[in-house]
Each structure stands twice: as structure tokens, then as C-alpha cells.
Amino acid sequence: MLDEERQSLKEEIRSRILEEMDISREVSDEEVLQQIREHLLQEGHDRGISPGDRRKMEREIFHSLRKLDVLSELLEEEDITEIMVNGPDQIFIEKKGQLFRSDKVFTTREKLSDVIQQIASAMNKAVNESNPIVDTRLSDGSRVNIILPPIAVDSGIISIRRFPKEPINMAKLLALGSLNREMAEFLKVLVQAGYNIFLSGGTGSGKTTFLNALTEYIPAGERVITIEDSAELQVIGVDNLVRLEARDKTLEGKLEVSIRDLVRASLRMRPDRVIIGECRGGEALEMLQSMNTGHDGSLSSGHANSTRDMVARLETMVMMSGMELPVPAIRQQIASGIDLFIHLGRLSDRSRKVLEIAEVRGMKDGQVQIEPIYAYEKDEGGRDHWKKVGKLENRIKLKMAGLTLPETS
User: Fold this and answer.
1) What is the value of pTM for the model shown?
2) Domains and their CATH numbers in the chain
3) Cα angle vertex 9, ends 7, 13, to 5°?
4) What is the number of helices (H) and of strands (E) in the chain?
5) Angle between helices 51-66 and 3-20 (to 10 degrees)
6) Residue 341: which H helix or E strand, with range?
7) Tens-digit pLDDT profile for residues 272-331
8) What is the pLDDT of residues 25-36, one digit of tens each?
């Protein structure tokens, strides 16, 4: 059967089922599948469709009726890490760090619009001309960004970043070569001792994955609160876990619950640690305040090109809070609240690695003093490797926790 005939048949069967569907009651997925099978069996007999092709069409028609159309098929492929929809007939995917154009397409712009609304409404998000940019997630935790016209010039845009079904732990990161064992042991002790750690890196550098991996070192019995725009963290091994997710304002501009609101609320929930998935704006002030008010061991992340750039970005984000704080006061908050920066990067071979682990050592000459402890660099032969370039100076939290670093640290 030619592609045009196949597509025409799928649309014909889809239309028939919609006409036959009893909208006065809830129709189950099993009933819809049974209707699709019956129509395809009849058409298969009349048009000579093979059993294999019939099963494939059955799945495609079901996805178009009950799920996310062609996106459902792509989401079933576990090795796809990103899905980028640039319009109804332009879908790109990422596999193993490489981009490819998919042969999947939406049949019409209207179908793409239907899927966009379906994704947004599933998480009680509103996306329309008045609110054309939305961050949300799928039921499996995949991160979704949606942009509609007129902001997106040609068509509605969907960007989906997928996460593994099973959280990637530190052992897996070691196997992938994201860091070495000495660094992992170093970070393990610091997380256990309650050092406040901030992760930085560019888009796709692995910040969320690394943040998840660090949580496996949190001692048992601690109460942890996670705060995110869209809940995507997969905290490992924490029983007393509270997950909070921000809420966008309604069309009337009401009922918004921001990350800043959640951070303030979390401090009244008796947390041992607060984990803010990502700082993008004024919530950086509340994040620093929580780190400075006894919630040792808190974690967060942000976008930056280097550790030093992250400090500058944090200053800017705190200014976005609307609080008229002088720059020296902001820098003091950063120097007092954050103990350690971990900077991540994505290399030319598409691998993700820890590029620097640096300690915050207070203020010096009006600047936040940062001293690298581990750095990723090239040796004389041009080979990449990690090098220990310093030692942890502030060991007060280690002593209070009764812990010691490995001898090499």
C-alpha cells in the first residue's frame, strides 16, 4: 500500500470511530482499540493489508485518538533523548548526542495544535495567544517547552527533553566517565556532611542528572523538600521527601504560586535540606537565604558558562527579586551560603563531564573568592584528564558531622 493510501485509510477509520463513539459516557482505551481492530480487519481483508502493517496502523490510529499522535511513537523509543517539533512536518530527534530528522509528521497544523493543548491541559497549564510560552512536563517526567504563534513565527513549537525511567546514580556516571572515583568519594562525604552545593553548566550539560545522583548520598532519616517549575527531579533513596511544583497564573492573572512562594513556604515545613531544581530569577534570593538559615546540605543549579560566570549570574538573579540590595550584600550572601560549586559541560564528542569542582572561600577585595579543587584539562600529550589542583579549606561541617575526607583530598 502506498503511503498516501495508507494515510488516507488511517484518517478514514479515525473519522468513522469518532462518529461512532458514544460521547454520553466514558469510553475506555480497550473499547477504542477494539473498534480500530474491527475496522482494520475489514479493510485489511478488502485491501490486502498485511498483519504486520495492520498492527502498526492500529497503534498509530490509537495514538492519534487517545494519546499524543506521532509523538507517542517517538516516546516509546527509549534511546531518544530529545524530541524537537518545529512544525507539523518538521520533527527532529536526538539519539546518542546526534540529531536526526524523523520521518514522522503531523497530518495537519490542527492536529499539532490539538496535541499541544493536550500536553498543556494534562498538567493544568494554559497555553494560548495571551500566554504563548509554557514550561510543563509529561506524565513520565519528561520536560516540555511549548511556544505558540505569534511568538513562534511559522508554527507551534514543542521541545521535549526526556529522562531515563530509572534515575542515573553516581555509579552510572562513573561508568559513563562523567567524573572519576576520587571526585565521587569527595562529593559523597561533602553531601553527607551538609555542604551547600550549587551546580552550573550550559543547556544539556547534565545538571539535573548530576543533581539527582548527588541525592543518593543524603543520609537516611533526613527530610528533603524539592522545589521546581516542572517536577522532574528523581531523588534517590530519600523516604521523607516532599515534592513541590510551581503553578502558573490563570487567564485572569490569579492563583499563581511561584518558586519564590514555594521556597518561603518550605522553610515552615521543617526541612533538613531544600533542593531547588533550577534558579532562573528572583528565587535565587530565597535560595541563598535558605542556605544561610540553617538548612545545610541544600542543593540547586543554574545556567552559566563557568563557575565565575555563575556567581555573576546569581548576583543578577538576586537583583531580579525586586529587593534593592547592594551588590556587596548580595556577594556576601553567596559567599556565606554556598560552600561548593560544581561546573558541568558538554564536550565536542557530546559527552557530559564535570569540568570543575571549586570551593567558596568567603570574600576577598569585595569579590566572592573561589578556589578550584578539581579541574578537567589536557596534559602535554593532548589527552583529557582530571587534575587535583587544590584542597578543601573549610572543614568545619566535616568535623561537626564526624566525617573525614579520603586521604587524597
Assistant:
1) 0.79
2) 1-62 (no CATH), 72-162 (3.30.450.370), 170-401 (3.40.50.300)
3) 120
4) 13, 15
5) 50
6) strand 340-346
7) 999 999 999 999 999 999 899 888 999 999 999 999 999 999 999 999 998 889 999 999
8) 666 777 777 888
